[in-house]
Amino acid sequence: xxxxxxxxxxxxxxxxxxxxxxxxxxxxxxxxxxxxxxxxxxxxxxxxxxxxxxxxxxxxxxxxxxxxxxxxxxxxxxxxxxxxxxxxxxxxxxxxxxxxxxxxxxxxxxxxxxxxxxxxxxxxxxxxxxxxxxxxxxxxxxxxxxxxxxxxxxxxxxxxxxxxxxxxxxxxxxxxxxxxxxxxxxxxxxxxxxxxxxxxxxxxxxxxxxxxx
Amino acid sequence: xxxxxxxxxxxxxxxxxxxxxxxxxxxxxxxxxxxxxxxxxxxxxxxxxxxxxxxxxxxxxxxxxxxxxxxxxxxxxxxxxxxxxxxxxxxxxxxxxxxxxxxxxxxxxxxxxxxxxxxxxxxxxxxxxxxxxxxxxxxxxxxxxxxxxxxxxxxxxxxxxxxxxxxxxxxxxxxxxxxxxxxxxxxxxxxxxxxxxxxxxxxxxxxxxxxxx
Amino acid sequence: xxxxxxxxxxxxxxxxxxxxxxxxxxxxxxxxxxxxxxxxxxxxxxxxxxxxxxxxxxxxxxxxxxxxxxxxxxxxxxxxxxxxxxxxxxxxxxxxxxxxxxxxxxxxxxxxxxxxxxxxxxxxxxxxxxxxxxxxxxxxxxxxxxxxxxxxxxxxxxxxxxxxxxxxxxxxxxxxxxxxxxxxxxxxxxxxxxxxxxxxxxxxxxxxxxxxxxxxxxxxxxxxxxx
Amino acid sequence: xxxxxxxxxxxxxxxxxxxxxxxxxxxxxxxxxxxxxxxxxxxxxxxxxxxxxxxxxxxxxxxxxxxxxxxxxxxxxxxxxxxxxxxxxxxxxxxxxxxxxxxxxxxxxxxxxxxxxxxxxxxxxxxxxxxxxxxxxxxxxxxxxxxxxxxxxxxxxxxxxxxxxxxxxxxxxxxxxxxxxxxxxxxxxxxxxxxxxxxxxxxxxxxxxxxxxxxxxxxxxxxxxxx
Lengths: 213, 213, 227, 227
Known about the structure:
The complex is a heterotetramer, with two copies of chain A and two copies of chain C.
Chain A: H1 5-14, E1 21-24, H2 28-31, E2 43-46, E3 50-54, E4 75-82, H3 85-93, E5 99-102, E6 106-108, E7 113-114, H4 130-136, E8 140-143, E9 155-156, E10 169-173, E11 177-182, E12 185-191, H5 197-202, E13 208-209
Helix pairs in contact in A: 3-4
Chain C: H1 9-12, E1 21-24, H2 34-43, E2 48-51, H3 62-67, E3 71-76, H4 85-93, E4 97-100, H5 103-115, E5 119-122, E6 136-139, E7 142-148, E8 152-162, E9 168-169, H6 178-184, E10 185-195, E11 215-218
Parallel strand pairs in C: 1-2, 1-8, 2-3, 3-4, 8-10, 10-11
Antiparallel strand pairs in C: 5-7, 6-7, 8-9
Helix pairs in contact in C: 5-6
């Protein structure tokens, strides 16, 4: 049983605490904001210089300068603030964000993250703010499909794509399971639906530890 | 013939160009602002985070937070701005100020500046912003008496007090003369009143070059 | 009297030289000095090094400089966006050099140049391909990469409001790279929506003090009707 | 709901521990968190390292901490002002350690700590006594000194206005060391003149975003009468 992307995002949202300062990466991570329950106040940062990112504006109400890292129009919540990119990345790198939720190509059992480049050298590389977030946030959660479209594992003993950061990922949310990166190795935190440990292990390129009871 | 401190300040003021961004050190340098002619617009920076420092406020009009580096109450000119100390010293160190006018204990013929500590080790040292200004401003002018109170030269082949910065001074304004620090050495730019080259040389601890005609 | 307001975009960029390094503010479509870029394109200085977060999309802005083959090298964090066809074409041809820099390192290198800092140790990129060949240092048990200041000959930036002293105020997320770039170039030119009277910008809210700005050009003529 | 407003200065500093490093904002008489300092003095934590631009004058503020002999070490740029009698007395006795740092280097080390920068190369102090024993490096022909980040356990800062999210706005030159210190400590406590409703501070003019601030205490009770 595989969760849909929106369902993985919903699962991540359950683990975002009230009052947290959070940066959501482009793509699937951005969906997480849709599922945080209304009784929690979460403050979203956008790398281009926004703290307190609000929902999309009503049509016709867009401020042409007010976009998020994914270049989508957004709004500012009351209590939000603007700053420049040097300050924004000082905030990120300086360990002030409680959490970054990022997509990934691959994650290793040590928490190494690969999410900026493949081994396809004919294509120009692009890194953006991924490396800064990876080393800067107090915790990094990864949200991704457990395997590639062709069924290859994306969770490995070591990444074979270029690293974004070494030993930075704390938890991995996939369509099959939730895994914690621990000093002992990758530990299953939750199996989705009726998935069994052995089924998830078979689709994982690193040895898993069973959930603690 | 020795100029009074206010007269030296007046002489410095003549050399401050229209439109210049200037930091005036504490003490005699601060007097320079009193003598800049009204047809020149000079923007003064204060290290504690002011650009566009204006004159002292009228009695009773003081803002308790609005002080200059010498802890005197000041005002802000229209067009001025506030910023924090990290930004203020970024501005100074980054070479954005056209000119710093500083006092000195000693200056060497190479333009070394000593203005923060003597060799009296029983007294606790204090440096403030002197070292940042010395290396940061595009030009450093020194304003000081030519000799100590006991008549010892303050302009020397090399400073025997601890340096504030090496090879940073461009011009020295004293009660006796104006001297330029050049690649060839210290060159007389102007002798005040009826002072002769030989009289000034006799009170200087480094070899002077005569003024260019 | 200090007056940094220039009449035209053309004159404000007329002394950009072949081979210059040019910072261009903006992030996505936000806070881009589009009219300054167009003036630079028409000016035609070649062999430029462009420093910006992106490498342009479509035919406009930075992409127009690439299309006209005025750019020898680009220093950026994210050259590959949807529609960055001119960058991709030149890159495939080997007609443009790319220096890829993590976004925060790019911003911090620009700030360092403006702040007189020669270099700094950042944890970003440590242990990755983007740190290869760079000096590293372990400080208090953590690994850091040495990155150096990145100055430029010219910065083209975009703000919302200015005054004749060059003070700048931005609009919402339109700040992005503009304030640090303003500090880091030998010549800083700001495209603004309007010019206010000196003293009309709140000194508590000025983001870029005028000392960092050499020239200001308004997008259209504007008179301080409130005065 | 996020509410960083605390009821009293006493409770806001109650968990400062013996041996902590404590940043204290302010420059001269401007932007000093005097009531937080008084609460810290009464709290009585000892063996403190104080990081501030000055070492106090008279009997008030930082000087009151020295007078009560709560401070083991002071990191500052200008300890010797007219009236800094307690610092001078303890220094003569050998009862206080002094780390003298050029003012811009002090501000930049604090900023570096808040910005995740491990260290940086500054030209300030190169070739002087204050660079003795430090690593140096010549970059593009200019000499630089390596300085490291300076974090703290606690920052006590002063602002003019705050909201419950911890956003801060300052008054004129009252910013000084307060904004960089806000970013550099594990626990940042702000003394403010008043607390406004969330959303009442202009997001274009907020100097310290609330993410850097843990606790806010108002100098007197204040209600948002405009609301």
